[in-house]
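Z., the sequence and structure:
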Amino acid sequence: MTVSAPSPLKRVGVVLLVALALVLIYQLTFLLRVVWYNYYNPQSSAIMRQTLNELRQDNPEAQLVFEWVDYDQISDHLKRAVISSEDAKFLEHKGIEWEAIRHAWEYNRKQAAEGSERRRGGSTLTQQLAKNLFLSTSRSYTRKGQELILSYMIEFTMSKKRILELYLNVAQWGQHEFGAQAAAYRYFKRPANRLTAGQSAHLAAMLPNPAFYDKNGSTPYLQRRTNTIVQRMRQVSAP
């Protein structure tokens, strides 16, 4: 009895099924980690580990400054400042603002065509949390795609309050500082729950490029941005 070999079409089908199964398993590992962080506080993040590795290339003894603080130990001013600066529709969207992404893409394409290095982000706080907690600062379509998937997972699993709590604790606020508590002590010598409106707006204005402002200090643009955020803070609320 002769057993015929699988046809090329069948072999392709098997390969595709195996590949699909591997992708699903890979995504399941992310989902399990998202569920874990809904109940347990992270001790570090992907961006923290990446930053520490980079710092230790120049200084093997480099350390990060990070201290977790619970949601009610963070100033409401900072919560509203970050929302007004980074994601004004945070309480309304489901993790992704497609219109903001489209506007950012069009703006960045125009700037690139003009030879400008200015860029605008369209990421929500949820997307930023996904990148900070699980991914890296690399710019690739693969990383961006995974960020979008993670954002939906996070929004499906966590409350807005938990998302903001995680974000404020893992966001980078200096060359070595991560989280609201480290930032509050680094720049204002006080705990995160005692930040004023102006101080909170200043920290929120730093978020797009915290390491730069940590190294170079305040700039006219940073001060203008801080003043704008102070005005916008009155129009948003925190979860």
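The chain is about 65% helix and 0% strand. The radius of gyration is 21 Å.

Let me know what you think.
H.
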